[in-house]
Amino acid sequence: MSSSSPALKPDVALSLTLSPSPTKPARIEAINKSEERGLRLIQLLLKCANHTSSGNLHRADACLPHISPLASVTGDSMQRLAAQFAYALASRLVKRWPGLYKALTNRSLQLSNHEMDPSWAVFSHAFPYLRFAYAIIAQTMVRAMSAERAREPPQLKITCVNGNKVVLEKLGLRLVKEAEGLDIPFQFNPVNVSLKELTIDMLKVRSGEALAFVSVLNLHVLLAEDDRVDAHFGPNKGNKVKDCKQMGQFLAMVRSMSPKLFFLVEQEADHNFRSFSGQVC
């Protein structure tokens, strides 16, 4: 006699429990906490900036431990902004000791270009303002320069000023390759200095050249006199706009070259307010 019985199957009970979605009061409470945290961060940042501006470094330093637990580079918009402001304020305090500041801001310890490129691509995609600015610059430059040397083959020379030698080397290779592909006579003039150190001789301007000067989010550094930061930690002398010798000298140099075009892209910010707290606010 043969018997066939069905194969025994283990008795498995699968239980899936979903966490309940937050109730409306819970969401409101979370929003309220976020708003309270944001207001608290603003108060602490302004307090820290005021102490920094008045020269009370110990009280400014005492504010930072209260900011750090509330700020976060991965939190909401206010937390992310506060994290960057806290870092900037801490850097401002450390600049009182130039040797310590330079050691902490060593370029070799910062993000590499390989790490920065993806971040820059994401930023450009999310905020197209700079792409729009570059498009306007390119279109205007082509129109303005089209009448130059109409009877001669076009010649292009690009001078790039940057304190990072690696950036200049990579940019030069890319530009030369692009010029070769377009069969355009091209010359790249890398100047490995900061804008503060730039002189007219470094630009190697030749007589008869049609010049176009382009500055994108760079010129404001001439308003921040980092080498004389101690002088700006004095008592608050009001929020009057102060003259900046470095900026005046630089603009006078550019004007002396009689550029055909001058492009300037900058954020709206009061970098030359006399008091540091005025710049922050």
From TrEMBL:
Residue ranges the record marks as coiled coil: none
Superkingdom of source: Eukaryota
GO cellular component, one term: nucleus
Claim: Iron-sulfur is one of the keywords in the record: no
Positions occupied by motif LXXLL motif: 219-223
A Pfam match: GRAS
InterPro entries assigned to the protein according to its UniProt record, in alphabetical order: TF_GRAS
Keywords: Nucleus, Transcription, Transcription regulation
Entry keyword annotation includes Transcription regulation: yes
Subcellular location: Nucleus
Similarity annotation: Belongs to the GRAS family.
Name listed for the protein in its UniProt record: Uncharacterized protein
Originating organism: Castanea mollissima (Chinese chestnut)
